[in-house]
C-alpha cells in the first residue's frame, strides 16, 4: 500500500506516473532506507521540508545501486502527484536552489513541452552552483543553468528517461511562444554602439615619415661606377713603401733590434732553440706527473680512502668490543 499511486492521480503520458521511473531503479528506491524512513506517509506539505534538506542531486550510485534522496523525492512526487501551483512555487523561489532543481525535474517529467519552455527557460539565467553525484559516488560541481540546459536538450538524466519534447521553433511557428530573448543581447548592443562611436571620434591616421638613423651608414651611390675606398691600397704602392724601407735600413738592420718587427723574430737561432727545447721538456714533465688539478684530486682521493679504512676498522673494533663485553671477555686493543 505504501508504494501505490494515489487513487485520484491522473495518468501521465498515458501511463501510471511512477512508471516513468524504470522498474529496476524503482525497486531499488522502494528497498532503500531513505524511502522507508523519510518518505513514508509523506504529503505535499511535508514534502517541502524534505526538499529544503537536500544537499545534492543525482540518480543511483555505487556498486549496489543506491538511490540518492533527490531521486527518492522525485518518485514520491510522482506517487502523490502534487498540484501544479506547488511545483510552480518550487521553481519560482530563489532561496533554496535544490528545491528549485527538484521542481524543475518533476515539471520536465510530467508536463508538456510548452510548460517546460515557459517555466524552465527563465532558469537559464540562474548561475548558482550545484553538487552532483555521479554513478561512482563522487561529487562533481555543476551549475543551475547547466542542469536546466540538460533537461531541455538531453533524453536521459539522473538515470531516468525523459519524455520527448516538441521543438521550440514549432511552438514559435504556431504563435504559442515568442522568440527567445537572451540577456546578453543588451550588452552586445551596448558594445556595438560604443565601438561605432569610437570609430567616428577617432582622428584620421597621419602619413608615416621616415626619420634617418644617424648610426646607419649612408648608402653609396653606384650610378657612376664603384667608388674608390680609402681603406683599399694598391699593390704598386705597397712595393714602393717596401723599397723605401729597405733603403733606410740596409742589410735587414733595424735601429731597435730589441723589439719585434712585424711578425718576425730577430733573436739568435740558438737561443730560440734552447728556449723552445726547455719549454717542451717542461711540458713533458707536467704531462708525466699529471695536471695540478689531477694531482690534487688523487691526493684527496688517497686521503679519503685512508680515512674510510681507519673509520671502518674503528667501527669493527667497537662492535667486537661490545660483543666481547656482553660475553664477559676483555676488549680488543686497537
TrEMBL record:
InterPro entries: PRP38. GO terms for biological process: mRNA splicing, via spliceosome. It is found in: Nucleus. Its main location: nucleus. Residues 207-224, 235-249, 267-296 have a biased composition (Basic and acidic residues). Keywords: mRNA processing, mRNA splicing, Nucleus, Spliceosome. Required for pre-mRNA splicing. This is Pre-mRNA-splicing factor 38. The gene is Prp38.
